[in-house]
Amino acid sequence: MTVVLALAATPVMGQDLLARQAPIDRKMKAVDTVALRNILQREQAQSLSSQLYSEWSNKYAHRATELPDSFRIDLRGYHMPTPSRVVTSNYGRRWGRMHKGIDVKVYIGDTIRAAFDGKIRVANYEAAGYGNYVVIRHHNGLETIYGHMSKRLVNENQNVKAGDPIGLGGNTGRSTGSHLHFETRLCGVALDPALMFDFKNQDVTGDYYMFRNSNARKQTIAKNVQPKTEVQNVPVIGEPNDQTSAKPATSVNRAAAPKTAAAPKATATHKVQKGETLYSIAKSRGLTVDQLRKINRLGKNSNIKVGQVLKFS
Q: What is the pTM of this model?
């Protein structure tokens, strides 16, 4: 009788075990799905860099290569390189030469951190330039450079996460006073970090920054003959844009004097786009931030908003 009861109970116990196991199986399946999704996202992000760069070298800080016509830079998952909010020198012409990054006030020994996930491409010393510096190639396609540090905390070919310590603030190389020289580059070409990083507010300018590239001559023609607001979406990327904006304007105005009256109407205002700052807008129009503020009666603490219309004359 006991054997008969035991045999009868076995299927029931098996069903109970399956019932208890089912939620665990579903949970493990969900975990596996999340893990797989994360792996796919990481591989996809890393593929962005492989699409832009044809080589990996530890021998040079930057080397300009062909830029894409357009490229969306993912700014999510960022970490500010330093908690300092004081920018001592902006991107642009300085002392007769191009300053291709921004200088942020830090003190010797302050921790400098990686802006995004990526891999250390260069960790080196340059006496006449960057001093102790680090170059990180990020999965989102950007490369960031951190210069004048007193000490490097990472090695070449090392993987880092956003926020990982990579060095200490310093005053090495071609530097006057302790600070962090911070650059953002795409395919080796310098972009204004202020287009993406707002150090004053310790934030990025948006979830994404849309880079658009066009030939310098086309930019000059569009700016002087047929101005369009789209030109403002093209980031400042170095000397070519700065050097080619003045001379062509003179020749066009002389050759087409009757049309000069129409040009100011097209360039008198600008509608603020997502990701733009007062600095980037003023830079593209050949003005200083103070001049732009004065024309629009903006105080020093005033902020601009997407869709806001600014005057230039």
A: 0.58
